[in-house]
């Protein structure tokens, strides 16, 4: 048989075609096209099939990447999909939005040897999109129906990951979410140019078709008491994520025209769904014709600047207090933003917002990197006398997220939280201080990556299943 792998020595790395910046900046469609079947096979064949697959060990889900790359190279895509799906609840989503440059691809052996990494994310996306097109996706059909009922509060990546795993085991799964659509940040936080919404909706429909019950537009503590959910179900999983925006004070912080990043992104995504969005239509959360300044350097900031470009902003600047090498966001996203016309103002931090009733400028001060802080990162320091004012009609604060006060919001006693407000949960079982109540995802670990939330959800599902199965066996033995 002709050797299918190890082609990295003769075949260069080639990513899927990326739409031209002028073209993609006018819509919210994804910017990367799919591989042709032959191209995906060729690129998968560049894998070295190394003895210690660092791509797999550096993936939070420990996906069997070398295996499904080899199957793709051999044209066995259905088997590749089955292996991909075995460890990852949402491979078509991770293939699109995971920062592969910091995870699997960044750890690729041939990348370290100078040959250019295997395009793992693009191949993962190709495998699952092909599976959907060919009809290989099937509704969840458990081998047996179990009587135990599990409630999942939060329909984001951690919650839906647990939902999928629990339903496949046969449990009766009920999802509660505050939004009118399931998906959490996958639906309302991440823009369509990174993750088109029909990709998310088709997974949710698969869950519905498999027997999962969704109760949407349901705020715990207002529409339904937390204790009522506990009384109704044998186990509860808290997977609410973290939605409270970190704020920035200073003079002028209360002016109109200053918006939290998530409010801005939710409004834009709702508009893409065709919803009526008053805050968008009256210009409050619409960048059209405006000088926009986004404060922050993470992936959420990148989503905001690129959204503003597509809304027709007059100018878009990203203000970040460190330099490019020290920013937390994906370098791939920074490059995409620069191609689309975003200006990055490195080593600059806001001091005040300028304006009468509405913001008209951001007063910023230049920074320099001083000694490392306790995390090892160099601490930014102000340069005296270096202030400047940037024109601004819309300022967007993308400084990260913190947990909401669930104990107060839900009126629940005995739920232990950390000093940061995250829910305390056993790192092995995911169980909280309340018996039968579990927690997973960002509400436990703080704002993090989707792929970590998926892992947490799967592990929580396994722990819940073990507990309920043990309890069921004990009841049978006692009868």
TrEMBL record:
What InterPro entries has UniProt attached to this entry?
DPD_II, FAD/NAD-bd_sf, FAD/NAD-binding_dom, GltD-like, Helical_ferredxn
GO molecular function list: 4 iron, 4 sulfur cluster binding; metal ion binding; oxidoreductase activity
Per UniProt, residues of the Dihydroprymidine dehydrogenase domain are: 25-135
Q: Which organism is it from?
A: Rubrimonas cliftonensis
The residue stretches assigned to a coiled coil in this entry are none
Domain annotation FAD/NAD(P)-binding: ranges: 149-457
Domain of life the protein comes from? Bacteria
**What UniProt keywords are attached to this protein's entry?**
4Fe-4S, Iron, Iron-sulfur, Metal-binding, NADP, Oxidoreductase
What protein does this entry describe?
A: Glutamate synthase (NADPH) small subunit
The record's annotation in NCBIfam families points to: gltD_gamma_fam (TIGR01318)
């Amino acid at each position: 048989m002709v050797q299918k792998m190890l082609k990295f020595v003769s075949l260069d790395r080639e990513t899927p075609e990326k739409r031209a910046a002028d073209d993609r900046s006018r819509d919210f469609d994804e910017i990367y096209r799919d591989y042709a079947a032959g191209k995906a096979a060729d690129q998968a064949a560049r894998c070295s099939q190394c003895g210690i697959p660092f791509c797999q060990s550096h993936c939070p889900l420990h996906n069997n990447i070398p295996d499904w790359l080899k199957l793709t190279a051999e044209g066995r895509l259905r088997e590749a999909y089955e292996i991909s799906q075995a460890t990852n609840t949402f491979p078509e989503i991770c293939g699109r939005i995971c920062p592969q440059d910091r995870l699997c691809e960044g750890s690729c052996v041939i990348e370290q040897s100078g040959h250019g990494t295997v395009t793992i994310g693009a191949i993962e996306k190709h495998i699952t999109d092909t599976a959907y097109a060919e009809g290989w996706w099937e509704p969840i059909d458990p081998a047996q129906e179990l009587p135990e009922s599990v409630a999942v509060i939060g329909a984001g990546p951690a919650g839906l990951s647990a939902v999928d795993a629990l339903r496949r085991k046969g449990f009766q799964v009920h999802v509660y979410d505050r939004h009118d659509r399931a998906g959490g940040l996958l639906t309302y936080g991440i823009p369509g140019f990174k993750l088109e919404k029909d990709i998310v909706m088709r997974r949710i429909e698969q869950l519905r078709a498999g027997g999962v019950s969704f109760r949407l537009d349901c705020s715990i503590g207002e529409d339904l008491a937390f204790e009522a959910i506990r009384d109704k179900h044998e186990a509860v999983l808290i997977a609410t994520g973290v939605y409270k925006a970190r704020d920035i004070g200073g003079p002028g912080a209360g002016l109109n025209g200053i918006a939290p990043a998530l409010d801005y992104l939710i409004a834009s995504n709702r508009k893409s769904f065709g919803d009526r969005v008053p805050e968008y239509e009256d210009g409050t959360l619409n960048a059209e014709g405006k000088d926009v300044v986004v404060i922050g350097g993470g992936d959420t900031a990148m989503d905001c600047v690129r959204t503003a470009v597509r809304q027709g902003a007059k100018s878009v600047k990203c203000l970040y207090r460190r330099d490019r090498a020290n920013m937390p966001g994906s370098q791939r996203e920074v490059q995409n933003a620069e191609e689309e016309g975003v200006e990055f103002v490195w080593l600059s931090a806001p001091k005040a917002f300028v304006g009468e009733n509405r913001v008209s400028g951001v007063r910023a001060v230049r920074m320099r990197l001083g000694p490392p802080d306790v995390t090892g990162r160099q601490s930014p320091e102000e340069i005296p006398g270096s202030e400047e004012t940037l024109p601004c009609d819309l300022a967007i604060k993308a400084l990260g997220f913190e947990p909401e006060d669930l104990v107060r919001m839900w009126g629940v006693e005995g739920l232990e939280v950390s000093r940061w407000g995250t829910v305390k949960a056993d790192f092995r079982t995911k169980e909280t201080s309340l018996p039968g109540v579990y927690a997973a995802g960002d509400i436990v670990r703080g704002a993090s990556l989707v792929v970590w939330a998926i892992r947490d959800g799967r592990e929580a599902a396994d722990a819940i299943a073990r507990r309920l199965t043990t309890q069921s066996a004990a009841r049978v033995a006692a009868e």
